[in-house]
Write a structure and sequence with these properties.
This is Serine/threonine protein phosphatase. It comes from Peteryoungia ipomoeae. With about 290 residues, the protein is of the alpha+beta class. It folds into two domains: about 15-120, Phosphorylase Kinase, domain 1; about 125-275. Helices cover about 55% and strands about 10% of the residues. It has ten helices and six strands. The chain has helices at about 20-30, 60-70, 85-100, 125-135, 135-155, 190-210, 210-225, 230-245, 245-255, 260-275; strands at about 35-40, 45-50, 105-110, 115-120, 170, 175. The strands form two sheets. Strands 1-2-4-3 form a four-stranded antiparallel sheet, with helices on one face. Strand 1 (about 35-40) and strand 2 form a beta hairpin. The protein starts with 18 loop residues before the first helix and ends in a 14-residue tail after the last helix.
Length: about 290
């Protein structure tokens, strides 16, 4: 079995990396400390990811306290672990998704705190950006397709943790997943973590859909078709909670409507009213302007 060098451990499958590729990977691993790096080789692209280098936003450090103080368990952040434990958690979660039949990046090498992965091609975010101007119908259909796949993830007893289109990709026409750093199911019931997935994903759907009145209900229906009852129940609970802070969000928005706040208002307005208006659609275009 081939080795990258002292302290790096064995390659998972020596046939996956040619000798000259091993040399290039080793050069990047020992010569820099970037958290995520792209390595373009003559015939393919690889990605190198290290654990423990990420600088967390200041809000994360107080998020757990706010969740307890406000009694909103959905806000509880994923536990921050030591680099070796973070690596083990992410590799295990990738394996769980793969075992359940979902596409994930192929790991070519993994040490205690770093991994080398094969490129998966464009992210869904990149694909959607290309489609939006040229083919808005296909753009929105892809948003719905991803929502359906997220429902299948939940039906398989999994949660993603950070379901953003930059962490999705297409393989053989199906939506695949990557970047499994966050694991909210470690600090809350699985159904609650899955409902949190839905809220986070609809921050994207409601703010980027070309035709939100049709696409948002269709995406929610696509997710719900495969989602377990526990996740749907927790989503109803979540929407009641976030609905109570919607007036405050709107008030803040009158002073300063940042992009994150606007997405939150749009997603919250849709999700809190969708059970009553799903058949008619819901107009998210005026989010943050009413009330």
């Amino acid at each position: 079995m081939a080795y990258l060098g002292e302290g790096f451990g064995p390659i998972i499958n020596g046939a996956e990396l040619a000798d000259h590729e091993i040399a290039e990977v080793l050069k990047v691993l020992v010569g820099s400390d970037g958290r995520v790096q792209c390595l373009d080789l003559p015939h393919r692209r690889l990605w190198i990811k290290r654990q423990g280098v990420k600088v967390l936003p200041p809000l994360v450090s107080i998020q757990g306290g706010l969740a307890a103080l406000l009694r909103i368990p959905f806000l509880t952040p994923s536990p921050q672990l030591a680099p070796e434990a973070m690596q083990a958690r992410e590799v295990a979660r990738m394996a769980a998704f793969a075992k359940a039949g979902f596409a994930v990046p192929r790991i070519l090498y993994a040490s205690k705190t770093a991994m080398v992965m094969a490129d998966v091609g464009p992210t869904l975010q990149q694909t959607l950006k290309e489609m939006r101007g040229d083919d808005p119908a296909r753009h929105d259909a892809l948003l719905i397709k991803a929502a359906r796949q997220l429902g299948r993830v939940h039906a398989a007893g999994l949660s993603h943790g950070r379901p953003h289109v930059r962490d999705f990709f297409l393989r053989d026409g199906e939506v695949g997943f990557m970047d499994f750093e966050e694991d909210p199911a470690a600090v809350m019931p699985l159904g609650m973590a899955q409902a949190r997935d839905v809220l986070l994903y609809f921050l994207i759907v409601t703010s980027t859909a070309a035709e939100p009145q049709a696409t948002c209900p269709a995406a929610l229906e696509a997710w719900s078709a495969g989602a377990p009852e526990a996740a749907r129940h927790q989503l109803r609970s979540l929407t009641r909670v976030i609905g109570r802070i919607l007036p405050l969000a709107r008030l803040i928005g009158r002073v300063h409507m940042g992009s994150d706040l606007r997405r939150f208002i749009m997603a919250t307005e849709f999700l809190t009213k969708a059970p009553l208006t799903a058949a008619e659609g819901w107009n998210t275009a005026k989010a943050g302007q009413d009330g």
